[in-house]
Amino acid sequence: MQNSTDLAVILRDMANDDKRAFDCLYHLYYSKLYFYSKMFLKTTEGIEDILQEVFVKVWMNRRNIKNIGTYNAFLYTVTKNTLLNDMRSRLKSEQFMENHFSNSVSTEFVTQHEIEYRDFNEKVNEFIFQLPEKRRRIYLMSREEGKTNPEIAAELSISVKTVEDHMTHALKFLKKRIPSLGLELWIFFQIIFR
Q: C-alpha dihedral over 150, 151, 154, 156, to 10 degrees?
């Protein structure tokens, strides 16, 4: 295992466009992120593609990584956001719905579940639309586009702290309103958007 000095050197070299340093970082973290992703998704399907996307984002943001603490937070935030985006895509997928519901429950239940899910999404979108414009934009960039806080900050020319503040307020706003849609859907929201 690499010690913190080695990791600091790797991060410094990678920030200077050293692809060998990136390869070292990839090999150092791939297994950890693979198992983290497997625990998160409860399946191995698609993990390699997800991690490829994560490491592309790491390379693209290599100059924004200032120290080990920042890197670890950045890496796991990017991974979590990428996994959440993948889960959202899977939940919207007809194939996912068929594989996970139609074999074990009646057609009436599946149809009812799809209707409830669509209604839930519409209500959540209504709540999102109630956010102030800038906060809504930041929220959607994070949750829909899967961008990290540093990426959003750079794109909007604001500080990362401002992005974090907007996200905190957006999530508080939504979490206060989601319970009104029903307990089951509120629990679903907690799992997907925590």
A: -110
**CB-CB contact of 172 with 121 (8 Å):** no
Residue 39's Cβ-count burial label (10 Å; 0-12, 13-18, 19+) is exposed
DSSP string of 89-125? HHHH-HHHHIIIIITTS-HHHHHHHHHHHHHHHHHHH
Per-residue pLDDT 10s for the chain (194 aa) are 345 558 888 888 888 888 998 899 888 888 888 888 888 777 788 889 989 999 898 888 888 776 777 777 788 888 888 888 887 777 666 555 555 555 444 555 445 555 666 666 677 778 888 899 999 899 888 877 778 889 899 999 999 999 999 989 988 887 787 666 554 454 555 444 44
> With contact defined as beta carbons under 8 Å apart, do 10 and 21 qualify?
yes
d(CA 144, CA 132): 17
Helices (H), the chain: 4-15, 19-41, 47-60, 68-92, 94-97, 107-129, 133-143, 149-156, 160-177, 183-193
Residue with tokens 């959540």: 124
